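Lab notebook, entry 337. We have the chain sequence and a SMILES string for nicotinamide-adenine-dinucleotide, and the next step in the workflow is to get a structural model of the bound complex before anyone spends time on docking refinements. Request logged below.

Task: model protein plus nicotinamide-adenine-dinucleotide, output structure tokens.
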Amino acid sequence: VITVPVALGDRSYDVLVGPGARYRLLEVLPVGARRAAIVTQAAVGVAVDAGVEQHVFEIDEGEDAKCLETVEDLCRRWVKWGLTRGDVVVAVGGGVVTDTAGFAASVYHRGVPVIHVATTLLGQVDAAIGGKTGVNLPEGKNLVGAFWQPHAVLCDTEVLASLPVREYRSGCGEMAKYAFLGVEGLRDLPLDVAVAACVTCKADVVAADEREDPANRTGRAILNYGHTLAHALETAGGYDLRHGEAVAIGLVFAARLARRLGRIDQARVEEHRSVVHAYDLPSRLPPGTDETEILMLMAQDKKAVEGMTFVLDGPAGVQVVTGVAPGAVVETLEEMR
Ligand SMILES: NC(=O)c1ccc[n+]([C@@H]2O[C@H](COP(=O)([O-])OP(=O)(O)OC[C@H]3O[C@@H](n4cnc5c(N)ncnc54)[C@H](O)[C@@H]3O)[C@@H](O)[C@H]2O)c1
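Result returned:
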């Protein structure tokens, strides 16, 4: 098991990555915790042993369950069970579970420690790391949330064996992103080493810019590489895309746009395509994409300040680029049909 530290002063913690990491829960438990509220979904099927009195609180599947109602429901069940601030919440699942349980933990009794046991590839390389928690509103995804760093994160690569193929591939979309944020040779590494390399990359970015300072063009915002188009495709809906699949298309789009703006050469675009294809992920827009709608959604993206804003590769690496002409965006979208 590989230990990756996330250096955040008095909020620092370790991410343990590798086969059997879930059995290390007892040793990362906060000192003095007498009870562990285990939050998970029936489909996850990963049992954990906190070594103290524990009770399992199941939540429903999917983005619809990632909502304020689930947070209220969890908090009320925790009160009935007698969970206190000195105890611990253990989220066992993918991003839906860790985002929802993490947010509930951040507000329950004004904050109770949470440990994430990430059981999807996407959760292990991304969602469980870095302290962003939150839920959806009917008006949009992740609109209510908090920064709440976990007490520890366990990424047991053994449990990925039971993941549906499509969920695994979705995680590969986020891994592909790290290939362009400076993680080298990812595809040639054993799975646990590859996951640890992605976690290390995210940990370093988060340690340098925990709260995503809007003025920092090379800070936490670069983790959104490929995500501007991905979010638009997900919001437009009706395309039946998993998050990582949308990110894969978004990465190739970002590369083509950067090429059009003269920031990178054609060889670098090909590199994006080849990484995405190696993970068996899509690189073109889904058939029937309404480009006008996608353009409008991307212009509304919360990062839009002056003109259109994207995270783009360039001579100095990936960074936030503002003032992108909508014409270049439209032409790039057309090229991706
Ligand atoms: N907080 C962050 O920084 C961050 C980053 C990226 C994504 N996210 C969020 O993560 C969510 C997506 O997460 P996800 O892709 O993990 O999806 P998910 O949590 O919905 O999990 C996918 C499916 O796999 C099942 N599952 C989980 N582990 C399993 C296992 N080991 N074996 C078999 N089945 C298993 C789940 O029950 C679910 O049906 C989104 O809501 C997204 O907004 C958050």
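Notes for the group: The radius of gyration is 20 Å. Worth checking against the assay data. The mean pLDDT is 96.
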